[in-house]
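Researcher: I need the complex structure. Ligand is magnesium ion. Inputs:
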Amino acid sequence: METTLIILKPDAVQRGLMGKIITRFEEKGLAIVGMKMMTISEELAGTHYADHAGKPFYNGLVGFMTSSPVCVLAVRGVGAIAIARSMMGATFGSKADAGTIRGDFGVSNSFNLIHGSDSPEAAAKEIGLFFGEGDVQGLDRAIESWVYDMSGGDPE
Ligand code: IDP
Ligand code: MG
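Model: Output:
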């Protein structure tokens, strides 16, 4: 099982798209194991996007991410990191495939609705940045054995 860090960015919150986006993850079968709203500080945005420091869009990105509240989620499932990335679609809303979150809900190349961790290392780091101890739940879903084939012992 993997847990990935998802951020519903300020445009998703302002446009009233939180429910629709969260529903996609729930309907896919992924489990929401952490969720909160917050306003990201400049310091936190800088740490989270440190890899992009110095790029032409960096200042705009930090300004955008700190401009209005976000909704932060911890989302769990087998292969959850790659599954969430494919559900998000390509970075630019103008290029993202129809059927993806960015492809269906946005056209902008900088206001692109959602962040998702891109590797297990990034997910562990980002969950530690945005959630405190005890904020991510050990959720024992009653429906688990209908979401996954558990007949072999491990979720398939
Ligand atoms: P990702 O969010 O799909 O992983 P990254 O390349 O890691 O994309 O970029 C992080 C974020 O920076 C993007 O989600 C987007 O908000 C912003 N961004 C990336 N490239 C550009 C750009 O060329 N113009 C404006 N914003 C950009
Ligand atoms: Mg990225």
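Model: Summary of the prediction. Residues 52, 57, 61, 91, 109-110, 112, 115, 118 surround inosine-5'-diphosphate (ligand 1) (CB under 6 Å).
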